[in-house]
Design a protein that fits this description.
The chain has a domain at 144-280: Butyryl-CoA Dehydrogenase, subunit A, domain 2 (Beta Barrel). β5 (198-207) and β6 (210-220) form a beta hairpin. It has helices spanning 7-14, 20-28, 31-46, 61-86, 90-97, 101-105, 113-126, 129-140, 288-318, 337-372, 379-407, 419-428, 436-455, 482-509, 514-520, 522-548, 554-574, 576-582, 587-604, 608-613, 619-622, 633-641, 653-663, and strands at 146-149, 165-169, 174-178, 186-187, 198-207, 210-220, 233-237, 250-254, 257-260, 270-271, 277-278. By secondary structure, the chain is of the alpha+beta class. The strands form three sheets. Strands 1, 2, 3, 5, 6 and 9 form a six-stranded mixed β-sheet that branches. It has a three-stranded antiparallel β-sheet with strand order 4-8-7, with no helix packed on it. The chain is built from 23 helices and eleven strands. The longest helix has 36 residues, at 337-372.
Length: 667
């Protein structure tokens, strides 16, 4: 295809100042990882599962689900083979199921995803050794298909408000699961509607007349042979959505359904045969699955954003528009600074989130390992981080993908661009696994406690240690270096948290209870959480790039450093009001900061296409007429248009049925 590459796109690649393969290896975490990823892609794409006779967007809702099941079965057959041949780990499953290969094969979501990303991880984290011995093998072999049911029709993020009950009957040594109201019906789990035959259900545990809060239970939903719902199981699909219509989201109700006692996952809490309840070391241990999924989500957001900026950047190199200088050709839209402003920050954000996701993944694994030894000290810190990072990265990703769609003008609105579908995937993440505002407020609770601990002279965990000893210290003279801007963000976060605590205390002194004082301060609290998270993302991006780029070539190291500077300066300009409030920055400093930002855009401009080439997406994975490697945008758009069933014949039946009679006054 090289002789058919759009000449504008080829000229962009010829400008590159660094080795693109070196960047790809850096993104993948090494040459071997790149080779293994490409090998997996070869293996899966050669199966042809991603190919469609009729593009799925032209199918009915029912047909889309049936195609998704067919593709998912073929995909998991290959995954099972990979597992046997290569001992593929959970991380590789995530890469297959997530925004890379998974979205190439199942662009509108998979009905089997929750089996791997929630059902199995919950068994690993919450089941006893004996329970794992029975269930894990069956689950890994796909002898059974599972999902995870927590959210209900009437309650989502507020999990203590969930209504589904599991009441222990000591006479039969069984739990009785029941949905007492319509709002207690489980709502949203992927694969639940018609795919899964087992489910981990989060329900309020009752024993000896006392409620012990939420606990996980394994419940069989359907007969393993006929797939018919079992007695007392009320189950179905919740209907069409903005996106992810292949995930088969379902509802689930129980009418006094009995399960054996050992179907409660009892690694942490237990119910003995006589109904005696044995407490876990910490009630938050039950939330391990949610933290795991939030960590995985950040990695998925990176992939979806990388796809979006790849599509929009390549298209911007090919598309020519307007004529700012008379008698000169229309320029590439990538030459407009406003276009660079839309795209370059997206490229930088992908790198920032990828490094932060890796950092959070290592922290998650370390904390989980500590939990196994009974050390719970860093669990609240991890929970607070997973909440705010999930909230900020999903929100930023949705904004980034939409910005990329707008950067492609009208063509970005077409499904053939793959930008609307990508937006549907990322914007969904803003509300699942915790609605973002609620998650920010959960982090705020941790920050308020941390502030109070610091005020009491207690040591703080690493990610909030900046709250100690900052009171009364004057802000030093401003300079626009990255370390100084990071110090400014630290002052912003500390200042916002301090004001929140002061406002809560002031409102309490005026006679309000703590809950009302909290609610009245909640907008500020969410902003303080966002400031804390922004500080974590910026400082992690800066420090991780400095550490990990040491062994790179000078040319690549320079480009990556410029991206860090761009990202930090961009957010300084976005939060200039906060910096004016909490630091010594002046109007003149802001002017210099703006010039610095524009200079960074100009310096990165020659490498724009090479930077997105470094993400190394195959055309089959991008699935975009606008973003293909060869840049033949207009030919591909026409090819996609001709796939519409409406183009199958020149005159549609509706002409003779409706249009012609209407035009002749005979309708």
């Amino acid at each position: 295809m090289t002789d058919k590459i759009n000449p504008d796109l080829q000229r962009e690649r010829d400008k590159c100042t660094f080795n693109v393969t070196e960047l790809t290896n850096f993104i993948d975490g090494g040459v071997i990882n790149t080779e293994e990823r490409r090998k997996r892609e070869d293996l899966l794409l050669k199966e042809g599962i991603h190919l469609e006779e009729v593009p799925s967007e032209y199918l009915s809702h029912k047909e889309k689900y049936e195609l998704a099941v067919k593709k998912a079965c073929l995909l998991f057959k290959v995954i099972r083979r990979m597992q046997e041949e290569e001992s593929t780990g959970m991380e590789n499953f995530m890469s297959v199921l997530g925004g890379t290969l998974g979205s190439a094969i199942l662009s509108d979501g998979s009905p089997l995803t929750l089996h791997y990303v929630m059902f199995i991880p919950t068994l690993l984290g919450q089941a006893t050794v004996e329970q794992q011995a029975y269930w894990i093998g069956r689950a890994f072999n796909l002898d059974i298909i599972g999902t995870y049911a927590q959210t209900e029709l009437g309650h989502g993020t507020f999990i203590r408000g969930l209504e589904t009950t599991a009441t222990y009957d000591p006479n039969t040594k069984e739990f009785v699961l029941h949905s007492p109201t319509l709002t207690s019906y489980k709502w949203w789990p992927g694969g639940l509607a018609h795919t899964a035959n087992y489910c981990i259900v989060m329900a309020q545990l009752y024993t000896k007349g006392e409620c012990h809060g939420l606990h996980p239970f394994i419940v069989q939903l359907r007969d393993e042979e006929t797939h018919m719902p079992l007695k007392g199981i009320k189950i179905g699909e919740i209907g069409a959505k903005l996106g992810m219509n292949g995930t088969n989201n379902g509802f689930l109700g129980f009418e006094h359904v009995r399960i054996p006692r050992d179907h409660m996952l009892m690694k942490n809490s237990k119910v003995l045969e006589d109904g005696t309840y044995v407490h876990s070391l910490n009630s938050k241990l039950t939330y391990g699955t949610m933290m795991f999924v939030r960590v995985v989500l950040v990695q998925d957001m990176c992939t979806y954003m990388a796809k979006a900026v790849t599509i929009a950047t390549r298209y911007s190199a090919v598309r020519r528009q307007s004529q700012p200088k008379p008698d000169e050709p229309e320029p590439q839209i990538l030459d407009y600074v406003t276009q660079q402003h839309k795209l370059m920050i997206g490229i930088a954000t992908v790198h920032a989130f990828r490094l932060s996701a890796n950092w959070l993944w290592h922290m998650y694994n370390n904390v989980i390992a500590e939990l196994d030894t009974g050390d719970l000290e860093r669990l609240p810190e991890l929970h607070a981080l997973s909440c705010c990072i999930k909230a900020v990265t999903t929100s930023d990703a949705a904004e980034c993908v939409e910005r990329c769609r707008l950067a492609c003008g009208g063509h970005g609105y077409m499904l053939a661009s793959n930008l609307p579908t990508t937006y549907g995937m990322v914007t969904a993440a803003c509300t699942y696994e915790g609605e973002n505002t609620v998650l920010l407020l959960q982090t705020a609770r941790y920050l308020v406690k941390a502030w109070q601990q610091a005020a009491g002279g207690n040591a703080l965990p690493p990610t909030v240690s900046y709250l100690s000893g900052g009171e009364g210290r004057r802000s030093p003279p401003w300079d626009n270096s990255v370390p100084h801007i990071l110090d400014g963000f630290q002052r912003v976060a500390r200042g916002k948290i301090s004001l929140c605590v002061a406002n809560i205390e002031k409102r309490q002194k005026s006679g309000l209870c703590y809950e009302d004082a909290w609610n009245l301060t909640s907008v500020q609290l969410a902003n303080a959480s966002e400031a804390h998270c922004r500080l974590i993302l910026l400082s992690t991006y800066y420090s991780e790039t400095q550490t990990l780029s040491q062994n790179l070539s000078p040319a690549l190291r320079q480009v990556l450093t410029l991206l860090v500077e761009l990202y930090v300066v961009y957010w300084a300009l976005q939060r200039v009001g906060d910096l004016l409030r909490f630091t010594s920055i002046s109007e003149r400093d802001i002017e210099r900061l703006q010039r610095c930002y524009e200079e960074l855009l100009a310096r990165l401009r020659p490498d724009a296409v090479a930077l997105v080439d470094g993400f190394d997406f195959r055309d089959e994975i991008l699935h975009s007429a606008l973003g293909s490697y060869d840049g033949r945008v207009y030919e591909r758009l026409m090819d996609e248009a001709m796939k519409s069933p409406l183009n199958a014949k020149p005159v549609n039946d509706s002409f003779h049925k409706y249009l012609k009679p209407f035009m002749q006054g005979k309708l």
